[in-house]
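Why predict the complex rather than its parts? Because the way molecules touch one another can change local conformation, and only a joint prediction can capture that. The input here totals 454 residues.
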Amino acid sequence: MSDRLHVATRKGLFTLERRGAGAWAIARTSFLGDPVTAVLDDGRDGTLYAALNLGHFGVKLRRSADEGRSWDDLDHPAFPQVPAGGLDATPAPPSVSQIWSLEAGGTKEKGKLWAGTIPGGLFVSTDRGSSFGLVESLWDRPERTKWFGGGYDEPGIHSVCVDPRDARNVVVGVSCGGVWVTENGGESWECRARGMFAAYMPPERRDDPVIQDPHRVAQCPAAPDVLWVQHHNGVFRSVDRGRQWEEIPTVKPSVFGFAVVAHPRDADTAWLVPAVKDECRVPVEGKVVVARTRDGGKTWETLRRGLPQEHAYDLVYRHALDVDGSGQRLAMGSTTGGLWISEDAGDAWSLVSANLPPVYQVRFS
Amino acid sequence: MPRVRFTPNLERHVSADAAEVPGATVREALESVFGENPRLRSYVLDDQGRLRRHVMVFIDGNQVHDRDRLSDSVGATSELFVMQALSGG
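Output of the joint prediction:
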């Protein structure tokens, strides 16, 4: 079980430690005042990474070899500079405006990192983040020009799932651009979104794989062919690594939301945090709840013990729900600065803080 | 030589000392600074070498026109000031 949790927020990175049963406390604060959009605690070598978005001064990537006591300022993932004269092109040449996901490569790929960004660039590093290269095989796909922004002005890659059995198998989620899969370490890619649909689109584009908006893709580590997606239009599940998706319409109290996590060992168990709907992004009836299935999505429990049940308007962003390696401990952070932890797979939750900055990501180490 | 100064707000993140540097355009002057202080570049310019959207550069109190190529002329005694636009909450 994990006794440490990183919480990336709009105004800093907070690292919590467990001091006893249900007792978690902030042990370290980093980057206070600065937006931290992603955090990665790399279990392969203990390195900690934090992606910042300083607003005026742009995207930054920081690395710590001493658990956050000190940080190195790295070159952030960046698009290749266009030749002189290319700046007038339409669309304008790209520049990374946010690092939206940071993931470790396979256990045997020491130092390999994946970074998903807005506007839609996937980057890879093989030297612990000291340098990154654009994955051109995905960026150069002609379908990429059909991607569009959802929530942000430009499309973005928010999910990168590396297959624990074979790290050449990588699943990428794009808002709004579908789910993309490589089986050869990124040499080539296939869009796998068959079965997903977007009822809000013009009818002729409803089923178009490359415009789907998977808000978050979660992979079961013990059964990596099982994928869960909280989509803008509902919840979907695949048991064949994205070749076919099945709608899961049974989620209570709603099928809209952003976050989803998969149980580390049980392919039939997953958790979601439902909200009303896309044009009203608050908990249903002002009650914060977590939805849990233990039967592959056929039925759902509504978990609410310890969570605010009156006039609560906390939204949980796509990276702000996490489960540890045991499947027992969950953490959840909200846009209004609430942070809750469960130590019994979501049956009961404890409030850790109601006063954090808006939470972008929670992540167990 | 023109003198380049940076908003003190940058000091929270990166060293940004004022410097007198060679350069006949904003690009040339900034590149001279970045040549000495490469970490500073990505705080001011984006991936394509354009001014970041919320960064402003003044030449003797006047806002630069060319934010992409940074071709505005700089006089031998000009003062450039690099600052952040005001935004956020």
